[in-house]
Amino acid sequence: xxxxxxxxxxxxxxxxxxxxxxxxxxxxxxxxxxxxxxxxxxxxxxxxxxxxxxxxxxxxxxxxxxxxxxxxxxxxxxxxxxxxxxxxxxxxxxxxxxxxxxxxxxxxxxxxxxxxxxxxxxxxxxxxxxxxxxxxxxxxxxxxxxxxxxxxxxxxxxxxxxxxxxxxxxxxxxxxxxxxxxxxxxxxxxxxxxxxxxxxxxxxxxxxxxxxxxxxxxxxxxxxxxxxxxxxxxxxxxxxxxxxxxxxxxxxxxxxxxxxxxxxxxxxxxxxxxxxxxxxxxxxxxxxxxxxxxxxxxxxxxxxxxxxxxxxxxxxxxxxxxxxxxxxxxxxxxxxxxxxxxxxxxxxxxxxxxxxxxxxxxxxxxxxxxxxxxxxxxxxxxxxxxxxxxxxxxxxxxxxxxxxxxxxxxxxxxxxxxxxxxxxxxxxxxxxxxxxxxxxxxxxxxxxxxxx
Length: 452
Ligand SMILES: Cc1cc2nc3c(=O)[nH]c(=O)nc-3n(C[C@H](O)[C@H](O)[C@H](O)COP(=O)(O)OP(=O)(O)OC[C@H]3O[C@@H](n4cnc5c(N)ncnc54)[C@H](O)[C@@H]3O)c2cc1C
Hints:
With about 450 residues, the chain is an alpha+beta fold. About 30% of the residues lie in helices and about 25% in strands. The strands form six sheets. Strands 1, 2, 6, 7, 8, 9 and 20 form a seven-stranded mixed beta sheet that branches. The chain has a four-stranded antiparallel beta sheet with strand order 12-13-11-14, with helices on one face. The longest helix has 25 residues, at about 260-285. The protein is globular, with a radius of gyration of 22 Å. Mean pLDDT is about 95; it is low at about 445-450. Flavin-adenine dinucleotide (FAD) binds near residues 54, 60, 61, 302 and 375.
């Protein structure tokens, strides 16, 4: 062991007040499911990619809000047709190799993929690192500099100083259409009713086989709402088998686009979540009596502000399964609109249903080099609720990268649609199903061992 202890220090003053300049081919703002997919796809196309997020970590809500399940990735029913490939295919293939990280559950209508958010977070970080993407984290978008119909550069504030990023094309995967909004372009919000967010909570040390059925839970919450001061009475609590963990989606919070109100709502969301946990412990002691809160996610935000695109996807187009000349993503996820305090609208589709998202809904009409992806594309309130889940978000991210790659220094409104069609073929046409696979006892044992 050395005796010497270094004591040297040096004194300095801030000298350079200029923003750090970085440039690339495609800059993606927002590193959630849509933005990560866009960045990986653009890197695969050989583009120099810069990926920016205001959070200090990658993964957006997929990782940091602990959403816990991928929805909208598969067709309805049990034939297992996968709708979205690219990043989704890579991630499922890699994580399904590790016992207990991910599994598919085919419900009576929908198929969802449960995931371990830590594993998905690390998969994402490694995929981005290996793809050679330049990552700028903890960087809040402050300003968008336009040159006619093109975004020339964006200004960011980070805790380590300001930055300016120039690129040929930009993906708005911010969830709140922040890039489009700051570019001065028109955006939409809900006209009459706000769409609620949710504070997700992970409870550990539950007794899995005593978990109440959803109908029973809903009835009890409705009956006891006043007693416990529960605001929402349409709970979703799902067990991650083999781990003694339940993921709770039991609150409805406001998600305003105003800093003070947003911060207040975050604290209120956690207080509401604690009330829900108290309710579970007291009403179902055999399942939740010894449970502990393992984690609160970052505030879960569903629908806030979104772009005005060349095309607004409508609920009729969703219900009719309208296929567009420029379709770039598909899903069969139900209408899932959280626009009332107590409950939410849940309208499912038949087994063979598919609805599509056109490039027109991703592209603001007055800009040549912005493509939106994820939960801020143009749709009416109800239609958006059926396409903002992560399966189609991943497909939209890939399509945004492809469209900007085809546009180069030209306009995304003038790309060759036949070329685009070929590039997004798998996410629109591919129909190979995978065998229905339920969780086996062996899987559960692995899942439990993997988390010891
Ligand atoms: C409670 C809840 C439960 C849900 N359940 C499911 C489910 O089970 N399955 C499912 O598939 N989907 C579910 N969804 C929907 C889904 O999670 C989201 O719609 C989806 O994750 C959106 O992905 P995104 O990439 O568009 O946006 P986000 O994941 O929100 O990513 C946007 C990113 O942009 C960054 N950003 C925003 N503004 C700025 C700025 N000014 N500067 C820099 N960065 C910025 C944010 O930090 C964020 O990381 C749920 C949503 C909620 C809220």
